[in-house]
Known about the structure:
28% strand
Amino acid sequence: MTMDYQNMTSMQMDVLKELGNIGAGNAVTALSKMLDKKVNMEVPRVSILEFREVSEILGGAEAEVTGVYFRMEGDISGNIMFLLPVDSSNALLDMLMGTYRDNDKFGEMSLSALEEIGNILTGSYISSLSTMTGMNIKISVPALAIDMAGAVLSVPIIQFGHMGDSVLLIETHFFEGKTHVKGNFLLIPDLESFANLLEKLGVA
C-alpha cells in the first residue's frame, strides 16, 4: 500500500502535525541541554509536500543552505534531513562555540559541530517518533553538505535513485535570547513507509 498525500484526511494531517510538534519539542529540549541555555520554540508548521516543492520553501533552488542528511532503516525506511539557512547555521555555531568559533567561515571544527547538532536534534526527533509508534527506527551516521538548496536536496535522489512523492516538512523556529534560528526537518519515507506510519498511528 502506498500513500497519496493529496488524499489525506484531516485526521491524518492532525496526527502528523502532532507528531511534528512532539518531535520538534524533543529536539529543542536536546538543543537546550547541548547549549546549557534555555531555548524556546514557536509552534512548528507541519506540511505535506511534493518533494519538488521543498526548495521553494527554503527560498528557492539557489538559496544557500546547510543540510545534515541521514538514512532511516527499520520499520520505516527512507531519508531524513535537517536543513538550515546558512545564517541560521552561523547563529547556532555562535551559540555553541562562542569565542572558540573558527576564524574561517566553515572550518573543520564548525563543520564537525554542525554534524553533531544535526545528529542530536534528528536523533531526538526519531526517538520521539519511535516512542509514539512503537516502531524500531535507526538512522545512519550524518552526512553534511553546505550548498544551494537544489544541490543539497538532490543528494538522496542521486544516492538511492528513487524517492517517495510525499515529504513531511516540519518548519521550526528556535529562540535563545535575541538569537533566532530557523530549522527544517524533512522526513522522506520510501514509497510504502508513509502508509505504514499512518497505520501504526491508528489513522490509516
